[in-house]
Design a protein that fits this description.
The protein has helices spanning 2-8, 48-59, 108-111, 167-174, 201-204; strands at residues 28-33, 36-42, 67-72, 86-90, 119-122, 134-137, 158-165, 183-195. It has 209 residues and is α+β, with helices and mostly antiparallel strands. The chain has a single domain (2-11, 25-198), classed as Cyclophilin.
C-alpha cells in the first residue's frame, strides 16, 4: 500500500530522461543555479517517500525560478546549542509551499542515512510537514539525524540523497553574505532542475506492492 500511495501521488512526464543510471535506485537530478551546477544522486531504496516527492517537484518544473535563499554557518550560528552548516532552497512559492500535501517524515533511524557533508535532506517544522523545501549539508552535522538536538522534537530530518557534483558550489553559496536572519542578501537563483535518469519504479507505479 505504501508504494502504491507514493506512485499515485506523483504523475511523471519523463521526456528527456534518456540516460541510464548505474544504479536505478539512485537517479540523478541536476540543479542549474546562478552560482554553478549541483548534481544530486537520490536514494529511492532507503528514502522512497522523500525521493519520489522531490522528483515530482523536479519533473513538473516547480524549482525553476526558485532559489537557495538561506545559509547557516556553524561558526556564526552561536544562538543555537546545535549549530549546523547548510544551505536551504525553495520553489518560487517559498519554503512554506502549500501547493501539495506534506509528506511522511522518513527518519534516519529507519533509513540508515546520515547528515554528512553533501547530504540533501527535506526541510520541515513539525514531523510530517515537509513539502518542497530542501537543504544541502556542507559539513558533517549529526545533530540533524534522529535523536539529534537541532530540532526540539528529536526526530531529525529526512535525508534522501547526496551531492555527487558541485559540493564546492554549495559551500560557495554558504559563504555568501546573509542578514541576521540567515537569509542570503542576494538569493542564488535555481534556473532549472532536471531529472537526468529514469524515475525509479517505486515513483512510477511499476514496483510490485
Amino acid at each position: 500500500m505504501r508504494r502504491k500511495a507514493i506512485a499515485a501521488g506523483v504523475s511523471l512526464v519523463l521526456a528527456g530522461c534518456a540516460t541510464t543510471p548505474t544504479d536505478p535506485q539512485r537517479p540523478r537530478v541536476a540543479l542549474d543555479t546562478s552560482a554553478g551546477r549541483i548534481v544530486l544522486a537520490l536514494d529511492a531504496q532507503a528514502a522512497p517517500v522523500s525521493t519520489c516527492n522531490f522528483i515530482g517537484y523536479v519533473v513538473f518544473g516547480d524549482y525553476a525560478g526558485g532559489s537557495f535563499f538561506r545559509t547557516v554557518v556553524r561558526a556564526t550560528n552561536t544562538a543555537s546549542p546545535n549549530p549546523i552548516d547548510v544551505i536551504q532552497a525553495a520553489t518560487p512559492r517559498g519554503s512554506d509551499d502549500a501547493s501539495r500535501p506534506p509528506i511522511v517524515l522518513e527518519r534516519t533511524r529507519d533509513t540508515g542515512l546520515r547528515h554528512r557533508a553533501g547530504t540533501v535532506s527535506m526541510a520541515r517544522d513539525g514531523p510530517d510537514t515537509a513539502t518542497s523545501s530542501f537543504f544541502i549539508v556542507t559539513e558533517d552535522t549529526p545533530s540533524l539525524d534522529f535523536g539529534g538536538g537541532r530540532n526540539p522534537d528529536g526526530q531529525g530530518f529526512a535525508a534522501f540523497g547526496t551531492v555527487i557534483q558541485g559540493l564546492e558550489v554549495a559551500r560557495r553559496i554558504q559563504r555568501m553574505p546573509a542578514d541576521v536572519e540567515e537569509q542570503l542578501v542576494a538569493p542564488v537563483a535555481i534556473r532549472s532542475a532536471r531529472l537526468l535518469d529514469p524515475a525509479p519504479a517505486v515513483c512510477t507505479g511499476e514496483a510490485r506492492p
